[in-house]
Prior knowledge:
two-stranded antiparallel ribbon; Phosphorylase Kinase, domain 1; single chain; 16% strand; globular; five-stranded antiparallel beta sheet; alpha+beta; 2 domains
Amino acid sequence: xxxxxxxxxxxxxxxxxxxxxxxxxxxxxxxxxxxxxxxxxxxxxxxxxxxxxxxxxxxxxxxxxxxxxxxxxxxxxxxxxxxxxxxxxxxxxxxxxxxxxxxxxxxxxxxxxxxxxxxxxxxxxxxxxxxxxxxxxxxxxxxxxxxxxxxxxxxxxxxxxxxxxxxxxxxxxxxxxxxxxxxxxxxxxxxxxxxxxxxxxxxxxxxxxxxxxxxxxxxxxxxxxxxxxxxxxxxxxxxxxxxxxxxxxxxxxxxxxxxxxxxxxxxxxxxxxxxxxxxxxxxxxxxxxxxxxxxxxxxxxxxxxxxxxxxxxxxxxxxxxxxx
Length: 324
């Protein structure tokens, strides 16, 4: 971290000094680091610092290195700052997120100083889950979507998710599935034209959830938050933590869990929407959202483990409904 960011962190936390506890993870394609820092003489025991540094030489784990992809990443960090500045305070304990203590830009670097969720009671990260874990994450998503139902994503992505069609022309261009390629724009437009829109997290994979002892969860990483139908997050989350046989076997149970919680959240927050009408629209859109991500994945990484027979069947059904 540059000295300017160190001084900004010390001033914000009223600490006399800070020290590195651990580097949590490198940002995608070498764009910086997320680290945990300890603080001396502060009311905060520790903080998590996201230090974005635009690299001189760009690298990508799967070879996608273009000016277009670079600008998408740059935009994503501006979106995340706008999210924390203008919208994050609306999240309550039903969709817990880390509080942002301060943020700053300096040249081509960005600083986000965030509450350490480990200290806040969410110390666990999981690579495999049981039903209770899945239920907790789905309930987080439902409450998040209820919170921002029919809100305008000003300063965020107009259409959230990192795989959104307009931000992925290179992946579409190399897509070998001709029918899916032909249907991609129509699928995207159908999702955009839905009556009910909300904010989607945009990268709601299992790795972005932090778990507590009490069964509750918090979520991190808001680079791709923006407008969309909530089931985009739901479809992506399910695909991130379940194998295809479980996706198919548990499909009804997963959807029921989401919509039951969404209705409770809408009622609790007194949102002026018809929950039954919303459910009717979004249940159908779940399959369109699944096909939308499948389109990205087949272009981006044709050999990916998430490309399976369940996804193919769902996508073929959606393509047929599009008349192709």
